[in-house]
Amino acid sequence: MVFLSVLARQVLISLVVALVAQGFVIPHGIERRDSPGFVALDFSVDRSSILSSGVVGKIAKGGKEANSLHAVVGKRAGTVSVNIHNARFSYTSIVSVGSNKQKQTLVIDTGSSDLWVVDANAQCENHSYCKTSGTFNPKTSTTYQSLGLPFEIYYGDGSESFGIWGTDTIGIGAISLQKQRFADVNSTSEQSGTLGIGLVRGESGANYSNLPASLKEQGYIKTNAYSLYMNSPDALNGAIIFGGVDNAKYTGNLIPEKITRPDRLSINVTSINYNGTLYKLTEDAALDTGSPITYLSAPVVAEIAKQAGATWQGSKTEGQYVIPCDADTTGSVDFGFENAAKITVPLSEFVVGGLDCPFGFQPSPVSVSILGDNFLRHAYVVFNLDANTISLAPINYTDDSNVSAI
């Protein structure tokens, strides 16, 4: 995730977790390591507040160097699904940490790779606001072990977090990951912890098995992969399925695109057709649930903005494109990719409600292009980290479900 200006990320979440094998729900409390299932992470959507001043995703930069951008198995492969909630364009879920299952509301982020929680005695930049989504007290967990190694992560919006690496039991509903590595943060300018589910190479510091990798290693899923269903713009929920794909949630075929970066969930965008005008390009763009809107290179955005009637507001180095709030939103934008995947997004996704109506395309301030939530709401996406591919298909908004393991 990277923000030009920080969005309030007040989180109200509920979590529903089910283990599913071959499309059937397994009762809660049953662990299927001998025949792993898929973990479904559902989320709810709170659209009470939308941007009023431009937003970029949140790119994590473990240490000082840019590292990464900022939820099937066994003999008869299954999957793991977990519930997430969208609070003001932050997709969040509740997990537990420790032997006493301390509840944490964490931002689900495909743009970073580390799991970190807020310590009970943490210093928060915004007074105690970072503690409203749950805190962790390592002294009360009998299974916590400190690794004694410093953790630090920096984001493109200037926010940062510092703490200590440790291991403990991480709970996702009925599922428990043993000795999972995470960071106990004692100083942060963020408003809640983060569950990064990106590539291992995108982690802060030395590489380790993050949550998706551990789900596979500990026998809950067969493949280190997950599918993302953001649901319709007006929906109140969606889902991530670890280790599986919901075949009812897309139309046509899932087309695999090669991941272009070792540390980032990026693919090549080769064209954009904005309401009938075709732009040929080669953009290495990350798919980031932490970004409400889409960011491309400045020259491309300038051309699209000119056609759309958006104007630049601000100085030469800082600002954003804004568009009249009553702009015509009939028509669509087609995104084309290297292996011929195509996703169509309605123009209404690019007029962002708020005081100034920021344009849904903005130039990336960090030299990283991002396909944000306004794109992801119209694509069914399968991130296969083992195969190094991201597969895309047009989304099908439905309550039906037909889950199979990857």
From TrEMBL:
Q: Which Gene3D superfamilies match?
A: Acid Proteases
Reactions catalysed = Preferential cleavage at the carboxyl of hydrophobic amino acids, but fails to cleave 15-Leu-|-Tyr-16, 16-Tyr-|-Leu-17 and 24-Phe-|-Phe-25 of insulin B chain. Activates trypsinogen, and degrades keratin
The domain of life for this entry's organism is Eukaryota
Provide the top EC class. hydrolase
- Listed EC numbers: 3.4.23.24
User: Which positions carry the signal peptide feature in this UniProt record?
Assistant: 1-23
Q: Name one GO biological process term.
A: proteolysis
Which Pfam families did the record assign?
Answer: Asp (PF00026)
- What protein is this chain from? candidapepsin
**InterPro entries of this UniProt entry?**
Aspartic_peptidase_A1 (IPR001461), Aspartic_peptidase_AS (IPR001969), PEPTIDASE_A1 (IPR033121), Peptidase_aspartic_dom_sf (IPR021109), SAP-like (IPR033876)
Which residues does the Swiss-Prot or TrEMBL record annotate as the active site? 109, 288
